[in-house]
Amino acid sequence: MTETTAGFQKQLKYVLIPLVFVGLVGLWAAVVKAWGISSFVLPSPSAVWDSLMTLAREGTLWPHALVTIQEAGLGFASGFVFATVVGYALGKSELLEQVVSPYLVAIQSVPIIGIAPLLIIWLGFGIASKVAICFIVVFFPMLVSTVVGIRTVSADHRALMRSYSASRWMVFRHLELESSLPLLLAGFKTSIVRAMMGAMVGEYIGGKHGLGYLLIAGGAEFLDTSMVLAATVALVGITILLYLLALALETALIPAWRRSMAKD
Fold it and tell me: For residue 173, how far is the Cα from the chain centroid?
């Protein structure tokens, strides 16, 4: 593939993404109008947009959105740090991994929808239970990315660093971290999305604040499908924004990583 073709395809995706979005919204509106679907079952895109704007103007949307972002942010940060520390230890020690892995697999095999009610019972209906749910859904993908990243480090490179009497910090900073960076960033992007999902699940099961609560309020209390979809749109929009920020971080770091690996 030539450089010109690659550049054209890169630019083309920025055109196709919004076009596909407009097409899907148009199809949604056309189906609702053509089939005469009740707004209680499936409101039109314009009705959902009006509901979203109403929530924003009334000051209802932003406080709930900030609660969800706070829960997801705290859960993501704690899960990311703990997973990378544990993942580094497991990646360095096969014995430790063999001892701990059965327990990690057992915990991971339980769906979060089954763990969430227990966490709410143990930690209450406040922010702690939601942060714990986000922590769990972030921990495992980040753990796997860290372990795999550490295991990808070349044994020859380790031997070379030892031959130069490199300290543990130098081995970590210039070899292990740089070698595992792409996988860590991939886990970083995935974990941000999962953190938002975890916060929503916690709020949906037992919460009085957050976008997940708005979903329940719109459906169970007000029987307002437009409100449910508006809260969903807000959640998706925030999640996409956070993902794009993570993607921008990856875009900024990967070229530097490639230059560093090329020097090695």
Answer: 26
Beta strand extents in 91-220 (DSSP E only): none
**Which among 72, 195, 78 has a CA at the least distance from the CA of 127?**
72
CATH of the domain at 221: 1.10.3720.10
- What's the number of domains the chain is made of? 1
Q: What residues make up the domain containing 248? A: 45-263
- Burial of residue 33 (CB within 10 Å: 0-12, 13-18, 19+) is exposed
- Answer yes or no: is 69 within a domain: yes
- Taking the chain (264 residues) in runs of 10, the rounded mean pLDDT of each run is 59 80 93 90 92 92 94 96 94 88 86 87 90 94 92 80 78 80 90 93 86 82 82 93 91 71 56
Phi-psi region of 223 (alpha: psi -120 to 50; beta: other; left: phi over 0): left
* CB < 8 Å & 24+ apart, contacts of 218-224: 223/40, 224/51
Predicted structure pTM score: 0.86
Supply the Cα-derived Rg of the chain in whole angstroms.
Answer: 23
Q: Which amino acid is at 117?
A: P
- Which residues, including other chains, have CB under 8 Å from residue 44's CB and lie 6 or more apart? 28, 29, 32, 33
Instruction: Calculate the dihedral angle through the C-alpha atoms of 69, 73, 79, 83, rounding to the nearest 10 degrees.
Output: 120
